[in-house]
Write a structure and sequence with these properties.
The chain has one domain. Helices cover 74% and strands 0% of the residues. It is built from eight helices and no strands. 39% of the residues are buried.
Length: 182
């Protein structure tokens, strides 16, 4: 089994990437319940599909592949634009949220604390959360830094200083938490 394959669960009958499919479906259903049939669902469905894979890869390899992240950006932008046209969050607010999140992580990247994959994922999450509500767009990065900080503290205690942690899973958790609670 490769380092990227999730662990099997014989008790539930799920093996390998089946866990990712189940998690993706659960995220999509949760988004549908939380958001309803709105244009924001376009971005959320794609995010539900890629979240499990991005999480597994980032934990295993400390990278977020462009082949998964970059195609999500135009979809997130389209969802935000469609939501704006339908009377949701204004497109300028959504684009500002995605840009601000990316700019913050770019600054952290330049000072050596963040990977470029995280920087590329930030506008996707900012746009997607903003398509749901401006509050979700503000909450997503805050929750990501809280989750990432908690993981960092535990990692520092267990492994000592200098240990790298993947931030993508915390970013995704923050975004999903903000969206599902919005």
């Amino acid at each position: 089994m490769s380092a990227l394959a999730p662990a099997a669960s014989p008790r539930l009958g799920l093996r390998g990437h089946e866990w990712e499919a189940v998690l993706g479906v659960l995220l999509a259903l949760g988004a549908l319940v939380a958001v309803g049939p709105r244009p924001a669902m376009l971005g959320l469905l794609l995010l539900a599909a890629i979240t499990p894979r991005l999480t597994a890869i980032d934990i295993a390899e400390h990278r977020l592949p462009d082949r998964l992240v970059l195609p999500a950006l135009p979809v997130a932008l389209a969802a935000a634009l469609a939501g704006s046209v339908a009377g949701g969050t204004p497109i300028l607010v959504a684009v500002s949220a995605g840009s601000a999140y990316a700019a913050l992580l770019m600054v952290l990247h330049l000072v050596g604390g963040m990977g470029l994959g995280d920087v590329k994922l930030a506008p996707v999450l900012g746009l997607t959360a903003a398509a749901v509500s401006p509050a979700a767009a503000v909450a997503a990065p805050l929750l990501a830094f809280l989750a990432g900080g908690g993981v960092a503290v535990v990692t520092l205690v267990r492994s000592g200083p200098g240990t790298r942690i993947p931030f993508g899973p915390a970013m995704l958790l923050g975004a999903w938490t903000a969206v599902l609670l919005a």
